[in-house]
Amino acid sequence: MKNLKLKAARAGKDLSQQELADLVGVSRQTISAIEKGNYNPTINLCIRICQALDKTLDDLFWPN
Amino acid sequence: MSDTLFVISAVIAFMIIYLLFAAKRRNKYDERQTLIRNRGYKYAFITVVVCNLVLLMVVESFNLKIASAFLLLLPIVLGMYVAAGYSIYQGTSIALNAKNIRINAAVFIVIGILESVDGIRGFIALQADWEDNTLYLLLGLFLVGLGYLYQLFINKKAK
């Protein structure tokens, strides 16, 4: 399932996948895989992404 | 026999040097890359086991005389190619702190070409020397280099 909320939050911060990847310390492909729903990140990575985008876990990773 | 011992000693020496070098500068991979790379190592292990079994069956059944160095190296080299190929295919071959990627790819391609030329030359001349057969195995290094370049191309395109 695609994570459109993450993509929207990243775009809202005007960050590219590479910039977000550098902020949270992962590869660009990993961010791409999370957005496409091809990879389920660990809770630690979820928290780092949320901190980088100033969002909560509910905002980005809780299914509607 | 001395050739076999030389190959084994060279492989052990290379591994020791590599481990010493790797201990100084360790590649960093993120959690997804680590997961996929570990899956690649699992497939490589399965390849080594299956290859060993097939070689054992073939050698025993047909009573073939194959150089021991070739028998020893074939499963290891094939396993290495499976791990490298899977890693490249999944886009996890390049570490987060990787540098000089283009140079690495070029080195792989040049070594692959050089080894392939030697291997094919020996193959055409039908030489049964272990070194020609073994060098032929290194043809895959060429493919690993191409895989690196392909990965770079995909990354550039995605950016």
Care to describe what's here?
The complex is a heterodimer of chains A (64) and B (159). Chain A contains five helices and no strands. Chain A is mostly helical and 64 residues long. In chain A, α2 (17-24) packs across α3 (28-36). Helices cover 81% and strands 0% of the residues of chain B. With 159 residues, chain B is mainly α. Chain B has helices at 2-24, 31-62, 68-89, 101-124, 130-137, 139-158. Chain B is globular and about 55 Å long. The chains are: A mainly alpha (64), B mainly alpha (159). Chains A and B meet through α3 of A and α2 of B.
Comma- or semicolon-separated keywords:
heterodimer, A: 64 residues, mainly alpha, 5 helices, 66% helix, globular, B: 159 residues, 81% helix
What's the N-to-C terminus distance of chain A? 12 Å
Helical coverage of chain A, percent range: 55-70%
Task: Please provide the ordered H/E string of secondary-structure elements of chain A.
Answer: HHHHH
Q: Which structural class do you get from the secondary structure elements of chain A?
A: mainly alpha
Q: From N to C, what is the helix and strand string of chain B?
A: HHHHHH
What's the overall geometry of chain A? globular
Mean pLDDT of chain A, to the nearest integer, reads 90
Nutshell version of this structure?
By secondary structure, chain A is mainly alpha-helical. Chain A is 66% helix and 0% strand. Chain B is mainly α.
Topology (SSEs and partners):
The complex is a heterodimer of chains A (64) and B (159).
Chain A lengths: L3 H9 L4 H8 L3 H9 L6 H11 L3 H5 L3
Chain B lengths: L1 H23 L6 H32 L5 H22 L11 H24 L5 H8 L1 H20 L1
